[in-house]
Amino acid sequence: MLENHRIICFAPSDWWGMNPSCTTHIMRKLAAKNKILYINPFGSDLLGGLKRKKGLMSRIVRKLKSVAKCLRQPEKNLYVFSPVFLPLQGKTAIDVVNNALLKLQIRMACRLTGLSKPTILWLENIRAADIMNCFSPVFKIYNVSDLFANSSYIANQQIQRQWENRIFQESNLVICVSKELYAMKRAERENVFYVPHGVDFDLFQQAAQRKDEKFKELADVRRPIAGYFGTLTAHNDIELLLWCARNLSDVSFVFAGQITGGDYSELKKLDNVYFLGRIPYEKIPQLCVNFDVCMLQWKMSKWIESCNPLKMFEYMASGKPIVSVAIKEAMQYADVISMAHNKEEFCKAIHWELQNDTKERSQRRIEIAAKHCWDNQIEKISDLIIQTMAAKHTKKEKASLVTDRSAVR
User: Which residues contact 312 (CB under 8 A, 6 or more apart)?
Assistant: First the structure.
């Protein structure tokens, strides 16, 4: 495993968010043998938010709460910093002011945490393109966990693509979490690798062993239950969910997570639909065990098509049947996940899974999840970093040797 490095992580999601992101899991694991400064996102775009209106205020409140935490040390060897910034971007004058403000704060955080001379930059927030060169790290890693150049949270799409391309080109190593993202990036350069998300396997399996333990928030919910946990946004296919809930009146539809966008008012009116609100991560595995079928339901877009849902392996680790929209990363497991291309297919798939799932399919899902536990994925990432670092060092030595020989001549 990677060890004795000083890592600055420009993260795409808040450490203090509703559920741990893939980056949170990775940095927690790496902090066992490395020193980490996790920098919360500083790319919220008020102009982009105004176009959507719904969910804007909740985004602002969440970010203010995060910034209020400033610099914290939640775990040994791991620091989390939430910089103050202007919630606008993509305009030259504003970006100049923001960059100066951010560099000053981040340098101060680095000094306070002993990370003024990082050896590795973990780049996942593409807004870091304007900040990364204030460091002189040995190594830069671009972790492509989503199609960042297509983010709907930034008004200026052109500047967004420029940021993403700069990070992509300057990184020594590019890691992609889905095969679709890998295919896009590998066509443009070398040192691009596919390492899918991991799962906190033991946490979900321990909950599965206590499957008879009741979950109090579901005490008044009749079975069977079709469930989903995670942030609820306009990207979720609400029309699909309405169709399923209306056509499967004997099934309870349960959603755990904060609503940050989209109109869920019609769903809330249905007697067989339940919104639990935010559930702490430590309770999520036990909630999942109480689902009879788990759902991955988003509106299909280029963003969703190329993503790798973190909760897919979490569902699998619980052994539960899964119904998903046509996400390419899920399609490789079509033998144990029911894939649906429209609302009618999704509805039929829920009914089929409730009637036809087997112990063999459940065990197969558990085995797949076990292979993708975070420890395994961190080892793969560590090996890639160590190997690429060694190759870079060898290349540098050869170049130096050639220079010396030329000087002698």
Answer: 197, 296, 322, 324, 329, 330, 337
Q: Nearest-5° angle of CA 122, CA 124, CA 129?
A: 90
Question: pLDDT for 337-359, tens place per residue?
Answer: 999 999 999 999 999 999 999 99
Residue with tokens 């960042």: 148
State the burial class of residue 76 (Cβ atoms within 10 Å of its Cβ: 0-12, 13-18, 19+). Answer: exposed
Residue 178: partners with Cβ closer than 8 Å, 6 or more residues away: 194, 196, 306, 307, 308, 328, 329
The answer to whether residues 365 and 232 belong to one domain is yes
Range of the domain at 18: 6-198+374-400
Give the β-pairing of 78-81 and 71-75: antiparallel
Residues 30 and 177 placed together within one structural domain of the fold: yes
First to last CA, the chain: 43
* CB-based contact 171:140 (threshold 8 Å): yes
What is the average per-residue pLDDT within 253-273?
A: 96
Q: DSSP secondary-structure letter at 375?
A: H
- Dist CA 180 CA 144 (whole Å): 11
173 shares its domain with 307: no
pTM of the model: 0.89
**Residues whose CB falls within 8 Å of the CB of residue 358, separated by 6 or more in sequence, listed in order:** none
Residue 12 lies in a domain: yes
265 in a structural domain: yes
CA distance 310 to 257: 15
